[in-house]
Amino acid sequence: MMKRINIKNISLLAAAALALTACEPELDNAIEEGGVYTAGDADFSKLVTVGNSLTAGFADGALYLDGQTYSYPNILAGQMQFVGGNEFNQPLVNDNLGGLLLNGTQITNNRFVLTSNMGTPVGPAPLAGTPTTDIANKVTGPLNNFGVPGAKSYHLGAPGYGSLAGVPAGTANPYYARFSSSESSTVIGDAIAADGSFFVLWIGNNDILGYATNGGDGEDHNETGNIDPSTYGGNDITNNNVFAGVYQQLVQGLTANGAQGALVNIPDVTSIPFFTTVPYNAIPLDAQTAAFVNQNYAQYNGAMAAYAQTPLLSQEEATARTISFAQGQNAIVILDEDLTDLPDPTQPGQFLPKLRQATPNDLVVFTASTVLGTLADPSNPASVIGVGVPAGDNLVLTENEQQRISTAQASYNATIEALAQANGLAYVDARAVLADVANGGVAFNGGLLSSTYASGGAFSLDAVHPTARGYAYTANTIIQAINEQYGSTIPTVDIGNYPSVTASDNVN
């Protein structure tokens, strides 16, 4: 019988983070009293920011009050006050729980915290409690931050995206519905109406992120050629031409009144902890269990060897599709839809499953940590996911899927950079600075900022969005690009003064 396999919990990583949260550094602010700063050639009197969850201050899987306070736009606006900036208003939620209500019913989850489980770290868990932010209670008054979690590029110009009536049907965004100016308004229309003197636009991450976080389980519309975003699924990659056209319209609208600004490019989404935390070889087996599993795959391996002798399958692919386990850590078995279709010799009209074992070049998604090693069928001890049952296509981002993402991202960034140059705007290379965080980390006065899950300080517990410290680093990156473009001397912040992950045992 196959033994139940327990994947090592990410709590080993979380343990270090738990210790770090107990001793956040208290450092002096980098801005000295009496410092003289200049605006250069820019007018920072009214900042308007436009984008998605990164602009909203989303962190730990939710939008909560402290996250908004530490959002990069709020940090940026605070620094701009040294060079003529003024009040910066955000559509603040009511609490630090993070969940949203609609007419009293909770519709989004509470934020994650790092729970110690009475001293034994076990990783992230939702904070307990009932949230108090009801999206039916519209935010009124002037706003400066138009960051909408979940928004893709083409959503910003979509009428009705902030319709309260459309939220239950899934045709509108609950975060925008809280502060939209009307049932038919658009995000970009509301942002333009705010009439800012300076703007920051950061949009496009979600045009590829959904495809990535769902293991490539979606359509790449650069392959399909579909240029109608109204027909796109939530996990699809936006066509490059669609993105370019939409982005140009966004920039035209934001600069129509003569406003200056900064455009932020798209980082490598695959360098965030969501794709670098769960190893490809996550399956520990003893010798007896490995032999049992190999016996179960003998027929499948035999079919691969036989097909390798025909024109249907190359020897290289046959070798890649051969399943083999040994004592110790083993690569998980995955489904790969890009493999060759092969008829099942035992079932006429059917095809063999497209199985292979993962390689170091495959990226296992963060959410797989709760699935791998569990039983697909509780009554069948041989149905261990990742061993006897393959990990689904949504749990692994293969090399081909990564290439689709990379191709789209490169095209998006080329569009963003070209429009920055054409309009005399600052170009913020977020891709480069995130690469620094992911590849060894970035030193600061108090430690090292890295992308290691929970303990690295840069990313929150959802493994996608930054911590307050990560947002401070982002704000500094934007400030540096603005100063370079406009000759201003906006001071940066000391990222060591900003917290990372939060620990709590008050969880559900």
Automatic annotation (TrEMBL):
PROSITE patterns: PROKAR_LIPOPROTEIN. Keywords: Signal. SUPFAM superfamilies: SGNH hydrolase. GO terms for molecular function: hydrolase activity, acting on ester bonds. Residues 1-22 form the signal peptide. This is G-D-S-L family lipolytic protein. It comes from Nonlabens tegetincola.
